[in-house]
Amino acid sequence: MLERHRRQDYQDSGNELSEFSRRALAGLQYHPGDEPLEATLRRIDRKTGGAAGRSFPIRQFLSIAAAAALLLIGGYFLIQQPPGHEALFARHFDYLPSAVETRGGARADGPAAYEETAGARDKAMQAYEAGEYQQARRLMEEYLSENKRDNEVRLYLGIVLLGEGDPAGAIDNLEAALANLPQPAYERPARWYLALAYLRNGQPEQARALLAALKNGNDRYATASRALSGQL
């Protein structure tokens, strides 16, 4: 993590990390530049060591609980200063589990299986399910160029674009999907991800309006919308 931070390399392009560690790595880019990361970790090491009555060396933080330590850093700084839109986005974004029925290669078989056995739509969604988001984006865009009315795939493309750092493209696709939903169950997730896209695109007022419509209820979107609204 320290070496990646020195190189300012915050993307796990090789899919070497777990989802938890990927998000921790992405959060490193919000570490303030006026203090070296090593110094911050040592300072937090002293604080946690004093609170617990024992010392936890910096090496143990990095080797055993690097991701947890980085999340602790994030929480420490968020207490001292209001989070920006990008930091709020990173805190609340996660990929929507696929509800799309696919045929062909099994999910656990890896990219080779779905490339060889699935149709174009299934290839795209199986890449998404496998966490191969760059591959999924390419396959979805190719598929949608010939199947423009498939708003179910378009919804997931919007989520992929959002996660890949293209909020403007995500807004276009999520708005199109929301205007003609493939099924009612997609309405609340579509509004949630559109709100996150507006937030990441620097349009907090549009995000607030969507969050206000999601606040009522007991599902995950209501809970998340109330939390995010309170932080904007």
Question: What attributes does this structure have?
Answer:
globular; 0% strand; 232 residues; 13 helices; Serine Threonine Protein Phosphatase 5, Tetratricopeptide repeat; 2 domains; mainly alpha
Molecular structure report:
There is one protein chain. This protein is mainly α and 232 residues long. The chain has 2 domains: 2-81, no CATH class; 107-231, Serine Threonine Protein Phosphatase 5, Tetratricopeptide repeat, CATH 1.25.40.10. Helix content is 67%, strand content 0%. The protein contains 13 helices and no strands. It has helices at 2-7, 19-27, 37-52, 58-80, 85-92, 111-117, 120-129, 133-146, 151-163, 167-179, 187-200, 204-214, 220-231. Helix 5 (85-92) runs antiparallel to helix 11 (187-200) and helix 8 runs antiparallel to helix 9 (151-163). The longest helix is centred in the N-terminal third of the chain and has 23 residues, at 58-80. It is globular, with a radius of gyration of 20 Å. The two termini are 29 Å apart. Residues 50-56, 76-82 and 105-117 have low confidence and may be disordered.
Furnish the topology, listing elements before pairings:
Elements: H1 2-7, H2 19-27, H3 37-52, H4 58-80, H5 85-92, H6 111-117, H7 120-129, H8 133-146, H9 151-163, H10 167-179, H11 187-200, H12 204-214, H13 220-231
Helix pairs in contact: 2-4, 3-4, 5-11, 6-7, 7-8, 8-9, 9-10, 9-11, 10-11, 11-12, 12-13
